[in-house]
Amino acid sequence: MISVLFVCLGNICRSPMAEAILRHKVGEAGLDGKISVDSAGTGDWHLGKIPHEGTRRMLDQYKISYAGMKARQVASSDFETFDYIVCMDDSNATNLRKLPGGEQATVLKFMDLLPDHELREVPDPYYTGNFELVYELMDAGCQVLLDKICQEKL
């Protein structure tokens, strides 16, 4: 089983959106049971909460399930558990590196999946309100990541 962890700040907007989209794509590709997907936040403000209403609205619009998803915080054990750890911005990467085991972890920045895009970090829609842009980025980047996983691991 190949495992992917998406990481953002509070685990209610960007990373759960990416988790839901990649899970959906994995299912469409018939790869359930081969790829597992999770998400977490570097902060603890929203622990146990469901995804933000803006994230839910976008996922509902595209008929993508987020059932059972609740915010959690990154744990040091995640560095040993996950094959791919994908963070949304430099701040998240810095915070991951401060955790025990984080300094050696391989962390991929989400926007590195989309090298031709002008943005180098995924904007936080909690502050910008632009959930549509984040959905577009997540949809495109998750497809690239799925292709990458299939080439590298499957």
UniProtKB/TrEMBL annotation:
It is an enzyme of class 3 (hydrolase). Its EC number is 3.1.3.48. Residues 2-148 form the Phosphotyrosine protein phosphatase I domain. SUPFAM superfamilies: Phosphotyrosine protein phosphatases I. The keyword Ribosomal protein does not apply. Keywords: Hydrolase, Protein phosphatase. The keyword Hydrolase applies. CDD domains: LMWPTP. It catalyses: O-phospho-L-tyrosyl-[protein] + H2O = L-tyrosyl-[protein] + phosphate. SMART domains: LMWPc. Belongs to the low molecular weight phosphotyrosine protein phosphatase family. PANTHER family: LOW MOLECULAR WEIGHT PHOSPHOTYROSINE PROTEIN PHOSPHATASE, LOW MOLECULAR WEIGHT PROTEIN TYROSINE PHOSPHATASE. This is protein-tyrosine-phosphatase.
